[in-house]
Amino acid sequence: MYQPKTLGELSAPELRVTEICELMKESQQALIKTQLWRLQDLRDGGFVYMLELFITAIRSSKAASQHSSRPLHIGTFRTITADWKEHRHAVWSQRLLVNLLRHVLPANNESPADGVPVYMIDEFLTLVANVLAEKKGSHINDAISMIKAYVELRGGTHEIAQKALSTILPPKPPRPPKPRPHSEPRAATM
After folding, report:
1. Per residue in 135-152, pLDDT tens?
2. Residue extents of the structural domains in the chain
3. How far apart are CA 108 and CA 105, in angstroms?
């Protein structure tokens, strides 16, 4: 059996070992996978981990909904995410962003005062769209579903969420026109 020598070598295949799967329940397995992605993200500099900490601070802050906090929060968010292009190809960063999206977007029964302010949701949606642009995978499908649900929750009028969807799923190329059936040329009659 493969034994990683360093934490950096640990990856998803180790989570599929039968003995480990038997020890973990389904919900615990999801938590362990998330922790694995977080460790991989930390190994690469902690890009999404810093975002997780920041979003947690925003959610717990009473000042987040105050208009005077808006420039500080947006500036901090943009500073944390300034080097997003360096992390956009790391699958664990993508998966962690999608996982964090679950905590950023409001649930159906969540009051706006309980969650992340709309201005921060807009910033986060723009980041998620840029990082996930033209990527594929089940986590991308999850992000698309969550953003679509958010658009529906907002009455279908949320422009930034719509733009995020169009960035993640670029327009499909137009189909080529169907060829016309060839008809036999008519013989000239005299």
Report:
1. 888 899 999 999 999 988
2. 46-168
3. 10
